[in-house]
Design a protein that fits this description.
10 helices, globular, alpha/beta, single chain, about 270 residues
Length: about 270
């Protein structure tokens, strides 16, 4: 009987030891797991408070709103090529703010046809265009360029005097184009009128036929510059037409020369 009791006691003691070891092991594992969870929770970038999340969301929304506002401002500041071709001159004028509208009417006082011509061009964006001059040089229109459209008729001949009075400025290319004339006729025109070719580069239809990349010189005058008569004049900066005019009235041409490369350009004065 004694032996049986001792055997039971021995088993009980062994069981208690094993049970204690199991409990201690379990507690240790639990502590390690909880510690890991706690550490990961602190370092986890996604485990942020609700307040932090809301703050970041608001900031993102504000950033998006700023971008959207910038895009809207950019769009509103100038008319598209489609608008310039579809709207009438009077409709385009109404798109300008009051100060710009007043300035335009003042610049073209008594020259409504010239004003209407300019309104359909100011702000128009033209593709990169390279012309060949009668002396074999190449001219890129899309840089700072003043263009005068002429033919070999009397109006153009009488306008040369005003062209020769221009005081050339550094960095500006001055170009006279003859969209419907041969090089031979243009050279005769230059000889007769004494057009200052040290100031003006000259391009003719003969030297600028249609290519796979751009129209011929007549097409450029018609489609890019809406030319319907001569003389007409256009200023370009970085692919955008900054100002324009037409007719051989000295007052209008003087206004054109002053405004052509003066910032801010009118195309940024849209409501």
């Amino acid at each position: 009987m004694m032996k049986i009791n001792n055997f039971k006691l021995d088993i009980k003691n062994k069981f208690n030891i094993k049970n204690k070891r199991f409990i201690l092991t379990s507690v240790f594992v639990a502590v390690v797991i909880l510690s890991s969870v706690f550490i990961l929770g602190i370092n986890n970038p996604y485990n942020k408070s609700k307040e932090d999340s809301v703050t970041e969301l608001k900031k993102s929304q504000e950033d998006l709103s700023k971008i959207a506002d910038q895009e809207i401002i950019s769009i509103k500041k100038r008319l598209t090529n489609d608008q310039l071709s579809e709207l009438s001159a009077s409709e385009i004028l109404e798109k300008y703010n009051d100060n710009a509208k007043s300035e335009i009417n003042s610049l073209f006082e008594g020259a409504d046809k010239s004003r209407d011509y300019a309104l359909t061009l100011i702000g128009k964006v033209i593709p990169t265009t390279t012309l060949k001059t009668i002396d074999g040089q190449s001219v890129i229109l899309n840089k700072k360029t003043m263009i005068v459209i002429l033919n070999t008729g009397d109006k153009s001949k009488s306008f040369v005097e005003q062209m020769n009075k221009i005081e050339a400025q550094e960095g500006i290319t001055y170009l006279a184009i003859f969209p419907s004339e041969t090089t031979e006729n243009v050279k005769k025109f230059i000889e007769e009128t004494k057009l200052d070719t040290t100031k003006f580069k000259v391009a003719s239809l003969s030297d600028n036929p249609k290519t796979s990349g751009q129209p011929d010189l007549l097409g450029i005058a018609e489609y890019y510059f809406n030319a319907k008569g001569v003389p007409s004049y256009i200023s370009i900066v970085s692919n955008s037409i900054t100002f324009a005019g037409s007719g051989n009235t000295e007052k209008v041409f003087e206004s054109f020369k002053k405004k052509a490369f003066t910032e801010p350009y009118l195309y940024n004065e849209i409501k």
